[in-house]
Amino acid sequence: QIGPGSIIENSVIANGCRVLQSVIEEAVLEEGGEVGPYSHVRPESHIEMDVHIGNFAEVKNSRIGKGTKIGHFSYVGDSWVGPNVNIGAGAVTCNFDGVDKHQTIIEEGAFIGSDSMLVAPVRVGARASTGAGSVVNRDVPAGAKVMGVPARIIAGGSQKGRE
After folding, report:
1. Which one of 40, 46, 52, 72 is the catalytic residue?
2. Is 40 a catalytic residue?
């Protein structure tokens, strides 16, 4: 289903997808993917099966894993996102340091809280989570919960090397 106002350029849109008032350019949207309204999937992005990208989100040069949800108002650029990740409202992968672009990796089942800033290069481990408003500027171990500015481990994982 391609809704009115949508723009699709040089992209692959698989069966069972829904694009509502959004732009998809030079990207792949696998089966069951949903985009929009008012979202932008930019070049070199690959959206796997059953991914939901809600309203006012932008994905650039990223692979988004099966079953992941990016609800709204988020930017995911130069990232690899594993399956079944939840990215909260307003979360941003801060991929540009003023000179170079850097990659963010978010592993399977991670939960990225609303308004979290992931300052690349950074990795969020499998099943890890960030609290709302956190600024993550160091890797987060699998299963850990972090929060704050800068983000600190509050549960799971190890405190060693994070102070």
Report:
1. 72
2. no
